[in-house]
Every structure is written in C-alpha cells, then in structure tokens.
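Researcher: I'm preparing a figure for a lab meeting and need a structural model of a single chain. I don't have an experimental structure, so a prediction will have to do for now. The sequence is pasted below. Please return the structure as tokens so I can convert it later.
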Amino acid sequence: MKYNDRRDAALKLMPYLEKYKNEQVVILAVPRGGVPIGYYISKRYNFPLDLLMTKKIGYPNNPEFAIGAVSLEDFIVDEKINVPKTYINENIKQIRNNLEKRYHLFMGNRKPNDLRNKTVIIVDDGIATGNTILSSIKMLRKKKVKKIVVAVPVSPPESANFIKKEVDDFICPYLPEIFVGVGLHYIDFSEVTDEEVIRFLNDSNHFEKNRSVKLLNELS
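Model: Understood. Here is the structure written out token by token.
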C-alpha cells in the first residue's frame, strides 16, 4: 500500500476520527511532515491545530541514543542512566531554546493551546521507532488531558504495539510487516519546508490570518 501524498494520507485517516467530531479536540502535529496531515484533518472537523514540539536528549558521545526528551514546558529523563546533571541541564536549556525559536517561527506570538480536559490527537506522516511520540505522551499526561489519540498513516507493527499501551486510541490504517522507512510508503514524500508549515498554520481554521507574512519574509 502506498499513499499518493500527505493529503491522501490525511483523507484516509479522516473516517477513523469521525467519532471525535463532537468532542473538544486539539490536533498536535509533529513538524514538519505531520503538519499537512494535521491541517487537512483540522479543516475537515474544525479542530484547532497546534504543534507538538519535542526533541530527544542524546547520550554523551552517542547523540542518537535517547536518554530523555524536552518539550516547550516539560522534560523527562531516564533516571537509571548515569549522566551528570550539568549535562542534562545544559541540554534541556539548549533544546528548549531551539524549540521556542522554532515554535515562534511557525506560530508567531500565539501561545500553545490549553490542553486540560481536551482530547489531544497527535498526528504525523508516519512512525518509525515511535520513541519521540512515546516521550511526548508521557509529558502530555501531566497536562491532565482527557484523552490522547495517536493517528498516523503508517507504522511498523512493533512500534504500534508499544504506543497502543500508552494511549487511549491508536489509529493507523497500514501496519506493514516489512518496514524500511516512512517515505517508502508514499509516492510523493517531498520535504515539507518551513514556508509550507507556516502557510498551513496560517490557513487553519483557528489561526490568526496573515500573521505569517513577516515570518515568511524573514525566511527569504
């Protein structure tokens, strides 16, 4: 199975989300690839669209090995791993600063949506290991959300099984037994640019119109 593009993937996810149309929902899209999918779902159901800003903390001298994660407002660290607190604190500060800059670039001065008692739907264009989303889920639980739903077009079965245990609902139309990478399950998997992210957000149902003109100029 292959999706034509991210819009096609979003269209195929939409029927599975019909059951949430009357709930208080916030879409959290993983930038950048998840933003087009979040945009089309947001437009279909009139859900507010926001960004899931999370980045892993890498182990010293092996940055691909995650020992924690940082969001705009929170962080988690694997306490079983012996890493100096100074290293952790420096990484939290640096990562959060970068996340805040990216969020401001994409969202302007708008504050993140209040997620308390909301159904949060995390969307991306696909899942590989799922580690970043798992870390995000743990931090979202602290915000006293009503439900956490993960909706993605494609995922390896083993990653799906891990995530299912941590969320209230997991939606994924395609779980290929042989999984090499998310992009191989799309005909068009073109890179989503910063400019496109801003345009999608600017055109979403719950976003201040025309506020991205200055930011787009800054990107030029």
